[in-house]
Design goal:
Number of domains: 1
CATH topology: TIM Barrel
Distance between the termini: 5 Å
Number of helices: 11
CATH class: Alpha Beta
Family: Belongs to the metallo-dependent hydrolases superfamily. Phosphotriesterase family.
Protein name: Phosphotriesterase-related protein
Number of strands: 12
Pfam family, one: PTE
Radius of gyration: 18 Å
Order of helices and strands: EEEEHEHEHEHHEHEHEHEHEHH
Largest sheet: 8 strands, parallel
InterPro entries: Metal_Hydrolase, Phosphotriesterase
Strand order of the largest sheet: 3-6-7-8-9-10-11-12
Strand content: 5-15%
Keywords: Hydrolase, Metal-binding
Shape: globular
Helix content: 25-40%
């Protein structure tokens, strides 16, 4: 059984699934100035989308997914393309609003599985860092067994757990607490790895040292570091790796997303060299500019555009089914 925000469903009901999305989120504290040092408060419009793509963190408006109505419309578009389930991975530090998720799921017709976790250290409130290890573990356990704090919504997994290039004490404590709680609950943990480091195997070892089955570990946005040897090392731990498609933006001088062509080529090579690799996919929408209404690829990008490319490249239907349906279901199934 899989825990959604509207209750438990059978694994067979899951369908094509995106394992890392954000439906309501607030990352405005991550805003950065333009490349010339000026601050820009512009809204996301077709007229300034070029400027925004040149520095994706420049607009506070871009970093705030604040409309349930818009999210419903965007998910309905994705559902028409064949997407059936999303994992909502907005964690503490990213402005989560889990109480709004049941209404969004009902109105859009898309299953929503809520993750609950804590993001990278610099985004975390001091109140979270001041919890003891036992308190963190208890909060995670209650989110899975009863409800996410302040809501009636139960989490279906823990995440998105944040890690910095140098894993901080607060991050390590949260990782250990989440792994312990997830082990008891038989659920998965999703992880954000910093692209400036190569800590995937280290994080997997940390989580498994707390008893977590490596098959319950999901490393999201693995395409941020397209280093074959490194990704092979992660895959060989038994963990799941996720490719996130659709964002091809700059984050200031010298920092830029990969292109989808590069991601697809890397994914195809991984399937060839590691045919048993456990892989999922997402669009990892976390900003307004990624929404269809603003010229972005939207939540349905993978099923609408990426999958046909993979089919034309010769990826067998069974392999695509594994990435889109089977692996997500196995990851999220609570038994």
């Amino acid at each position: 059984m899989i825990q959604t925000v509207l209750g438990r469903i059978e694994s067979a009901q899951l369908g094509r699934t995106s394992t890392n999305e954000h439906l309501l989120a607030d990352s405005r504290h991550l805003r950065r100035p333009l490349r010339d040092g000026r601050w820009w408060d512009g809204e996301v419009t077709p007229q300034n989308l070029g400027d925004l793509r040149w520095n994706w963190l420049a607009s506070a408006d871009n970093l705030h997914l604040d409309s349930a109505d818009v999210t419903v419309e965007e998910l309905a578009l994705a559902r028409a393309d064949g997407l059936r389930t999303v994992v909502e991975a907005t964690s503490i530090g990213m402005g989560p609003d889990p109480a709004g998720l049941p209404d969004i799921s009902r109105r859009s017709g898309v299953h929503v599985v809520a993750a609950f976790g804590s993001y990278i250290d610099k985004t975390l409130p001091e109140s979270w860092k001041q919890h003891s290890d036992d308190e963190m573990r208890a909060i995670f356990s209650r989110a899975l067994a009863e409800s996410i704090p302040g809501t009636d919504v139960r989490a279906g997994l823990l995440g998105l757990m944040g890690t910095s290039a140098e894993i901080t004490l607060a991050e390590e404590r949260a990782l250990r607490a989440a792994a312990s709680a997830a082990t008891d609950a038989g659920c998965a943990v999703s992880i954000r790895l910093d692209a400036a480091a190569r800590r995937g195997p280290e994080v997997a070892a940390l989580l498994t040292s707390e008893g977590l089955d490596p098959r319950r570990i999901l490393f999201c946005n693995i395409d941020k570091v397209m280093d074959a040897a490194y990704v092979h090392d992660i895959v060989d731990t038994g963990a799941v790796v996720e490719f996130a498609f659709g964002s091809e933006n700059s984050f200031g001088d010298g920092a830029r997303d990969a292109t989808d062509d590069q991601r697809i080529a890397f994914l195809l090579a991984l399937c060839e060299t590691r045919p048993e690799a456990r892989i999922t996919m997402s669009s990892s929408v976390w900003t307004k500019g990624q929404l269809s209404r603003h010229g972005g690829m939207g939540y349905g990008h993978v099923v609408r555009r990426v999958v046909p490319v993979l089919e034309r490249a010769g990826v067998p239907a069974g392999r695509l089914e594994r990435m889109l349906v089977t692996e997500p279901a196995d990851l999220l199934d609570l038994g």
